[in-house]
């Protein structure tokens, strides 16, 4: 229902203190000592005028070149606002007209001109680029572009930062960051130094965007404090030369990793510790997951991240809790049963968490025999809560990772739950939140002891994921969900479980981590999104950190950035590696500051904006209801159209006009509204809706966008035109198709890439491996897609009469569905509201 009047703009109707997204106040700036609290709040700022790179501090206002650049910038903006009087006498200027007017001016690259091109959505329908959308490139000098942080790691919703909050409000766009801090990197400069150079005032790590006033002094790019260059920093270990601090790797790379000293440790680095908590009730045995878990762990036991200190343990449960003595020297594992679930105790403190190397044979014996041990069980109850209490007691001395496998609703002891799913109330706000605070409290206790809890839910019935998910949300864990899991009846889910589990067991991991995000003076962070515990106003506690989780941050502009030409953001992740080394991974992003609305729109990142709004909408649906969240998303589109028309385009004719940079925004919002997390109706099961919400809060941008708006390709007419040539393999690059049924045909073969799941629509029952050119092209393209993602995707082959066809067509978001409008209908509704 989009007939509601658009609310007055205020974070799209979102209150500033939105819960449960962990709202934060402005970052406090009090003194801190790096030796005791290396991530303590920065001290009071000292005011310094910002200096552009290459301009001396003494002549910043007197340089003729600098004044001329200001003149050119002003001229550019004047021309933009004069365009409606001449070029726009016709309905829309073409690119040659805009380029002729603006292309001759420095600082106005052609990409920026294209981003500002007005697009009438009611007339232009072929909006998709031929290949998946790339992140917009900030309008920076070539030297700064070369060293800037990768958008796959650090991305801002606006690649041109508005000078004031008033300008940001006028743009009707959210300001925020999307961060993937621990992602797998092919190249990572690792720096070992006795001195980690940081600003004495705000504790920013030295980075490519600081200014060297001379060889002995550098100016912080966040607070502008002038700092001394330490003697050790004068030596460059890469070039083995002395006297060139600006060529050090820390100043040449926006992403670096430091080997931390003892100043960054509150205790000796912990070993890698893994505890597996396994549901062995009758329901679990029927589902059949245990056999495949044991096989996968056996196959990957040597690949578990760690070293000679790595420790493992196992705990199984039904109506009682079973511990396993794996002490070196035993001839076989010993089961110890604790039946008192109301007062859980640990039967042995020395032999339950064992050194993997020393007890490897006993661990293998247990994994080999475990599936058969419970194959005849008739125990239907599940004491998950007491099992988690036992896990907490086992892991508290060291910290580490707890992996929970659950197949049903917990029915006994602490944390027991009752079914809340009413088919008529599946989108009710009270059912989207937890039924008890037991799992949240347990997660917070775990976080305090550096224990992360990951959940694998393999359930054929309602299991109240809204309550269970809290164990991972607040302990920086991960959540995996396999609805209708059965090892024989649902082979697709089994295949996905096996692939996910292999990735999960072997991916890298960081322990006892904290992360802080700093930003240029004048900017402030007020809301975080993701799985973590907020330790202080800007410090996130991450008991575990993994390469597949991401975070989002909402920001505001507290003070004018008029004295700044650049804005910078820095994320610092302090963690213990699986080898027991304390490390600090630092990412720094630099963006230009602008004072014109047209520049803000030209630098808008439509995918980052969509992902941030998705996070905001999830929180809004939990606190205020699904309908309210959906209205806020529609209002975001209405606000953009209204603001652009009244402030920038000055178009006299009717139409739905947006800048080219945001041409896909209404389509993405419509796609969001059709996702399981946010769609209306009662057809979406409650656990599936909650899991979709959890994914929105933790998935990196690229995976999230493929969930929201999958990539659709036609495969049967692929050619080598524009193909990639990789290691003697030709990888075709077919063009993207709009997600509409009229783009399909019965005689074609189409691939829909949804990220973790790919639908392959074709008239045969499998993907043939033939010695034909087309077969080779298809397989090369599929292999290339798989190689570019962390989790291996499951491919569904959909024949034109298969039951999976309905799922495939649900992703055609431009078409009308049972409970949602088509893209053209959505645009018409927006037109009525603007």
Automatic annotation (TrEMBL):
Location relative to the cell: Cytoplasm, Cytosol; Cytoplasmic vesicle, COPII-coated vesicle membrane; Endoplasmic reticulum membrane
Location, primary (coarse class): cytoplasm
Domain of life per record: Eukaryota
One cellular component (GO) term of this entry: endoplasmic reticulum exit site
Chain ranges of the Zinc finger Sec23/Sec24-type domain: 196-233
Segments passing through the bilayer: none
Segments of this protein annotated with the region Disordered: 1-48
Keyword set includes Metal-binding: yes
Positions of the Sec23/Sec24 helical domain: 605-705
Keyword Metal-binding recorded: yes
One Gene Ontology term of the molecular function aspect: zinc ion binding
One annotated GO biological process: COPII-coated vesicle cargo loading
InterPro entries linked: ADF-H/Gelsolin-like_dom_sf (IPR029006), Beta-sandwich_Sec23_24 (IPR012990), Gelsolin-like_dom_sf (IPR036180), Sec23/24_helical_dom (IPR006900), Sec23/24_helical_dom_sf (IPR036175), Sec23/24_trunk_dom (IPR006896), SEC23_SEC24_subfamily (IPR050550), Sec24-like_trunk_dom (IPR041742)
The protein's name in its UniProt record: SEC24 homolog B, COPII coat complex component
Protein encoded by which gene: sec24b
């Amino acid at each position: 229902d989009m007939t509601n009047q658009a609310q007055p703009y205020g974070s799209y109707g979102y209150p500033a203190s939105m819960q449960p997204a962990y709202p934060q106040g402005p970052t406090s700036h009090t003194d801190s000592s790096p030796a005791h609290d290396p991530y303590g709040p920065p001290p009071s700022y000292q005011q310094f005028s910002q200096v552009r790179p290459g301009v001396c501090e003494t002549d910043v206002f007197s340089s003729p070149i600098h004044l001329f650049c200001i003149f050119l910038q002003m001229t550019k903006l004047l021309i933009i606002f004069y365009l409606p009087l001449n070029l726009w006498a016709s309905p829309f200027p073409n690119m040659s007209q805009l380029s002729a007017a603006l292309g001759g001016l420095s600082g106005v690259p052609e990409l920026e001109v294209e981003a500002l091109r007005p697009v009438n959505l009611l007339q232009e329908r072929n909006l998709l680029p031929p290949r998946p959308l790339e992140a917009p490139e900030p309008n920076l000098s070539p030297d700064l572009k070369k060293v800037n942080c990768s958008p796959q790691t650090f991305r801002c919703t606006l690649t041109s930062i508005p000078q004031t909050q008033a300008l940001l409000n006028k743009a009707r766009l959210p300001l925020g960051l999307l961060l993937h801090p621990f992602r797998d990197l092919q190249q990572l400069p690792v720096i070992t130094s006795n001195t980690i150079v940081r600003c004495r005032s705000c504790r920013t790590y030295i980075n490519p965007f600081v200014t060297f006033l001379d060889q002995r002094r550098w100016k912080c790019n966040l607070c502008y404090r002038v700092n001394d260059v330490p003697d050790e920093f004068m030596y460059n270990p890469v070039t083995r030369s002395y006297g060139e601090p600006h060529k050090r790797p820390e100043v040449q790379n926006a992403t670096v990793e430091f080997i931390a000293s003892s100043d960054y440790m509150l205790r000796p680095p912990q070993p890698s510790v893994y505890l597996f908590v396994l549901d062995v009730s009758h329901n679990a045995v029927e589902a059949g997951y245990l056999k495949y878990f044991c096989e996968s762990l056996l196959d990957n036991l040597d690949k578990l991240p760690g070293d000679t200190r790595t420790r493992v343990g196992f705990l199984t449960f039904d109506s009682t809790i079973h511990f396993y003595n794996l002490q070196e020297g035993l001839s076989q594992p010993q089961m110890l049963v604790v039946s008192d679930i109301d007062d859980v105790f640990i039967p042995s403190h020395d032999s339950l968490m064992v050194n993997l190397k020393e007890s490897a044979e006993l661990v293998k014996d247990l994994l080999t025999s475990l599936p058969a041990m419970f194959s005849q069980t008739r125990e239907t109850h599940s004491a998950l809560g007491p099992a988690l209490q036992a896990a907490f007691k086992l892991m508290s001395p060291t910290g580490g990772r707890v992996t929970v496998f659950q197949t049903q609703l917990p029915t006994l002891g602490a944390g027991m739950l009752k079914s809340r799913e009413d088919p008529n109330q599946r989108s009710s706000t009270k059912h989207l939140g937890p039924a008890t605070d037991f799992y949240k409290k347990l997660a917070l206790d775990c976080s305090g002891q550096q224990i992360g809890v990951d959940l694998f839910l393999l359930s054929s019935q309602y299991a109240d994921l809204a309550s269970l998910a809290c164990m991972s949300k607040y302990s920086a864990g991960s959540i995996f969900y396999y609805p209708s899991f059965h090892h024989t009846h649902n082979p697709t889910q089994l295949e996905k479980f096996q692939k996910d589990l292999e990735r999960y067991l072997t991916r890298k991991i960081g322990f006892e981590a904290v992360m802080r995000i700093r930003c240029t003076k004048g900017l402030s962070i007020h809301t975080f999104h993701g799985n973590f515990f907020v330790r202080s106003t800007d410090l996130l506690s991450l008991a575990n950190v993994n390469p597949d989780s991401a975070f989002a941050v909402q920001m505001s502009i507290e003070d004018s950035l008029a004295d700044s030409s650049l804005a910078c953001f820095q994320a610092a992740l302090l963690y213990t590696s699986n080898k027991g080394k304390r490390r600090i991974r630092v990412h720094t992003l630099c963006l230009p500051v602008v004072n014109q609305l047209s520049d803000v729109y030209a630098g808008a990142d439509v995918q980052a904006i969509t992902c941030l709004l998705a996070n905001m909408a999830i929180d809004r649906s939990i606190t205020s209801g699904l309908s309210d969240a959906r209205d806020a998303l529609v209002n975001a589109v209405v606000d953009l159209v209204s603001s652009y028309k009244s402030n920038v385009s000055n178009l006299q004719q009717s139409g739905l006009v947006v800048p080219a940079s945001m041409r896909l925004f209404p389509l993405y919002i419509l796609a969001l509204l059709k996702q399981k997390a946010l769609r209306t109706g009662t057809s979406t099961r409650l656990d599936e809706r909650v899991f979709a919400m959890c994914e929105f809060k933790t998935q990196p941008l690229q995976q999230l966008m493929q969930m929201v708006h999958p990539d659709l390709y036609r495969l049967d007419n692929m050619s080598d035109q524009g193909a990639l040539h990789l290691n003697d393999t030709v990888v075709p690059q077919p063009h993207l198709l709009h997600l509409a049924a009229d783009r399909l045909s019965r005689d074609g073969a189409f691939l829909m890439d949804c990220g973790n799941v790919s639908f392959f629509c074709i008239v045969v029952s499998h993907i043939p491996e033939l010695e034909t050119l087309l077969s080779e092209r298809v397989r090369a393209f599929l292999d290339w897609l798989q190689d570019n993602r962390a989790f291996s995707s499951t491919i569904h082959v959909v024949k034109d009469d298969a039951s999976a066809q309905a799922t495939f067509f649900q992703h055609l978001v431009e078409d009308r569905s049972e409970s949602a409008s088509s893209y053209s209908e959505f645009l018409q509704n927006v037109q009525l509201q603007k």
